[in-house]
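Blinded run. Sample ID left blank on purpose so nobody reads anything into the name before looking at the predicted structure. Input follows.
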Amino acid sequence: MAALISRVGKKLRRIIQRPGSVELTRYEALLPAVEKLEPELEKLSDEELTERAGKLREKLKDTAFGDEQLIEVCALGREAARRALGERAFDVQVLGTMGLLTKHVVQMETGEGKTLAGALAAAGYAIRGKRVHVVTVNDYLARRDAEWMGPVYALLGVSVGWVQPSHSREERREAYAKDVTYGAVAEIGFDVLRDRLVTSVDDLVQPAPEVAIVDEADSVLVDEARVPLVMAGSIDHTDADEEVAKVVRRLRLGLHYETDSEGRNAWLTDAGASVVAKSLGLEVDDLYGETASDRLPAVNVALHAHALLTRDVDYLVRDGKVQLINAARGRVAELQRWPDGLQAAVEAKEQVTATDRGEILDSITVQALLARYPEVAGMTGTAVAVAEQLREFYELEVAVIPPNTPNIREDLEDRVFASPSQKLRAIEEEIRTVHETGRPILVGTQDVAESEELAEKLAKVDLECVVLNARNDAEEAAIIAEAGKKGAVTVSTQMAGRGTDIRLGGTDGATRDEVVELGGLHVIGTARYPSSRLDGQLRGRSGRQGDPGSAIFFASLNDELVLSNAPDVPEGIVDDEETGEITDNAALRQLNHAQRVAEGVDLEIHRNTWRYTRLIERQRRDLLVHRDKVLRTAYAAEVLEKAHEEKFGELKEKLDDQDKLEQMCREVLLFHIDQLWSDHLAYLTDVRESIHLRALARETPLDEFHRAAIPEFHKIIAEADSRAAKTLEEAELTDEGIDLGDAGVRRANTTWTYLVHDNPFDSDFEQTIKKVRSMIKRK
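Blinded prediction complete.
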């Protein structure tokens, strides 16, 4: 009876507390069998353990995991970890491994050992004969985890490598040839883009994708999902209109321009239009007429850079360059930039040297990158909150793994204030009071500017703190690891240092017992984030593996979250005259409501983006099938011979080498295919930028996008064949065949990769977003 009650209780908890999670009963039932194998495996020598894993590999090759195979893989992994790391995987880690091996996103709390669970799962897939990519959020974690887990893989007879930005093509090819390869999502994506443009099979570095295990899956699969990774070829510097930038710099909000309540759009007032036109030597009517058609877009982009993008919030200026800040992580978004016009406008605003503008050669969203893998699994501490998105966009289900030790962290009720200044005073007092006890404190801020403002205020009252934000992200792992020391005060933007545990007493644990006695790490949120999941991530930095700890959020009814998403605060809410604190539950309900609105808007933007990019990715996939045929066969030579048999015969005679002939024809045709795809992307960008005008005519933007995109795409293959034939026809033949440069077959001599930051005023979505906001607000 007791066992029955326990099982019913577990199921009820899953229904009530963990919506969207899969049933774990099947995996839990296998745990005794895994444990039963331990004595047998412990008797094996290292060589015998490796040999046993090899025999399992032969038996499992290209077959699915049954219960018997799951048991064997997990038992071997547990024993390998015990020997290599001195760590016996807990049952919950084994459950996590099973969840990953059966293609789920597993939710494991901070400090519960996701890295080991992920490594054992990766080894399991490799033993099954699959090539595995472990996808991380940054390069530091990719290398750290590959090196850390290397001895475990070695005992299981599994090879492991990692890719880094500094790696050469040969080093990358070697890393991808391993059974398991670790890499940051952007780095793996950039290698995919580079491979899509090679002209010889020998230049490919990545094998066909098979399995992806995504670390920090909510961040990669949701937060980064719609971010395009771009490969560009050098053309020239982007010429921002310096004169326009100087004019716009003098404009004042309320007098010369206005912004909407969401902070997504800005526009000139009549007075502003007059000032701008006069400064540019134009009449107002000319500014909006055809005679100045090139100036108005420059004015609009410069105005958005001036009015809507804030230094130290949206970007930093460091080493003479504009560097974007990733809003979801509060750290510099390496290699990320806005679309060229806006990037140049911000650089002109900050008076720094303009970066090179590139012709976009190819691009892929993170979501499409992961969709290439036939098998995908993931792990994170906060998956349930995005279960709907994971199911909708990836057909993935969430498996919630219980903690090894119950979580005893105390989550205190939010404290709400009337104004941000009153809230900040209360935060300072909270830090001072808790710091006096000796407890370590981690403060999570919204942006760089806020973290530095808070640090300055604490310094004035002799409270020393360590600031961790986008300015010093290279040191984030080391800094965050020491945040659990006695008396430490760490001020951090968003989830900086994610992937690094905060151990009570610091990395050496010298003061651990004392900190535990004091109550553990105290986490303070300076405002609610746009997503409850991000709030949960910050809270989760405390209470690791059953440690004591606490978390509290401070908020204001004038925080950006409320002003942007639920500004209509109910009447009758009264604050304390002295402190400004509000104890009325209506204030908390308003905060929760604003957060739900923000989450709804973000989900709709994701859906809308995917509706557009899905067609582009499908077209790219179809063209890549054709491109691969050109790359690997004599198709190009056959096309050119058919088009100009006589000229082709002359070329064949000059080269007198069939392989050289086929390669030269291949390079000509691939050049035109790649150029036409680049032109197609530019065309689609133009269509997207003007599509909102069609909405004004009561046409559906997405339908119009499809009507424009599909016929153009179907012209590419035939047009590429035609252009290649014309190249051959007009080319001067030499003893070396065709001088490709003289024939106009010139690829970009400089290429680079970057991520495109969401355009903050993408008019494409504006009508949809406003409708979503109003619908949610009415609920």
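Unblinding after everyone has recorded impressions. Residues 13-19, 758-779 have pLDDT under 50 and may be disordered.
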